Amino acid sequence: MKYLEYTPLDRINDFLSHVNLGARTIKGCLEAYSCKHTGTDKKLSFSLEHEIRDYLGKSLDTDSSSLVEYLSSGSSRKTLIYLVLTLYHMYPDYGFSAVKAHQFFTEESWDSFKEIFDTYMIEASKEWVEANEGSPLLDTLYKALDEVVKLAECEIYSYNPDSDADPFVERGAIWSFNFFFYNRKLKRLVSFHFYCLSNLVAEGFLMDELCYEEDWEIFDDMDM
Fold first, then answer.
1. Which domain range does residue 117 map to?
2. DSSP string, 79-133
3. What is the rounded CA–CA span in Å between residue 118 and residue 222?
4. Any idea where this protein resides (predicted)?
5. Distance CA 162, CA 142 (A)
6. Among 166, 165, 182, which residue's Cα sits nearest to residue 76?
7. CB 107 within 8 A of CB 155
8. 172 with 24: CB under 8 angstroms?
9. Residue 76: which of 192, 155, 177 has the closest Cα?
10. 4: Cβ–Cβ under 8 A, 6 or more apart, which residues?
11. What pTM, to 2 d.p., does this model score?
């Protein structure tokens, strides 16, 4: 997976790097990748493929038939491996299981993505409109994604892991969403992570850190 730079995405990323709404802050990041193996990707891909085949070989009648059916398809396995490899590139220090990750991926449509975006990003969208002379944020996002991955040809996935398997969760997170736009023909993928943080929790965490450092400074000055 090779990281790709696209100016249309950079403009949105600059805006979503920090949208302060008073008690809350909204952040987001778009990243584009080419689905061509680079560096350790081949080794990781082989390992993930082996994990899936091992699971299929040991699967029982009690296992989910839909999961077994999905993983038995070579095309589906390849898509899942690309998605998991993208997660590895985004969070290289986190270990992802292909079989477990599949449980948290859901196939979406542009309409289902739009519904979530319109609901949770409404305030950020207002800030964007004020800063960009009335141009809607969702329209700008659509054009940027379409330029990179041609949305009409895309498969869209959401990734919603439980708390134990979520490397995206930050302290003070109120909500968080992760979407992947994958064009099979272009072998190109865009990830979009957007989330909301409580500024009160974040500020409390900062105060805790400062107090902790001050306590240690006091101990350092003491003649033990």
1. 2-206
2. HHHHHHHHHHHH-TTS---HHHHHTTEEEE-HHHHHHHHHHHSHHHHHHHHHHTT
3. 56
4. Nucleus
5. 28
6. 182
7. yes
8. no
9. 155
10. 32, 33, 34, 148, 188
11. 0.82
Helix axes 122-131, 137-149, angle to 10 degrees: 90
- If one counts the domains in the chain, the total is 1
What residue type is 96 in one-letter code? F
Tell whether 26 is covered by a domain: yes
Q: What CATH number is associated with residue 152?
A: 3.40.1000.50
Is 50 contained in some domain?
A: yes
Q: Can you list the pairs that 131-139 forms with residues at least 24 positions away whose Cβ atoms lie under 8 Å?
A: 131/15, 137/12, 137/15, 138/114
d(CA 86, CA 123): 29
Token couple for 149: 């991955």
User: Residue 56 carries which side chain, given as an amino acid letter?
Assistant: L
Q: Would you write out the chain's pLDDT as a tens digit for each of its 224 residues?
A: 899 999 999 999 999 999 999 999 999 999 999 998 877 888 888 888 888 888 778 776 555 666 677 777 778 888 888 988 888 888 877 777 776 777 778 899 999 999 999 999 999 999 999 988 778 999 999 999 999 999 999 999 998 876 665 666 677 889 999 999 999 999 999 999 999 999 987 565 544 444 444 444 444 554 54
120 found inside a domain: yes
Closest CA to 142 of 34, 30, 26: 30
The answer to whether residue 221 is domain-embedded is no
- The alpha carbon of 45 is separated from its chain's Cα centroid by a whole number of angstroms, namely 19
For CA atoms 33, 35, 39, 45, give the dihedral sign.
positive
Asked if residues 187 and 34 have their Cβ atoms less than 8 Å apart, the reply is: yes
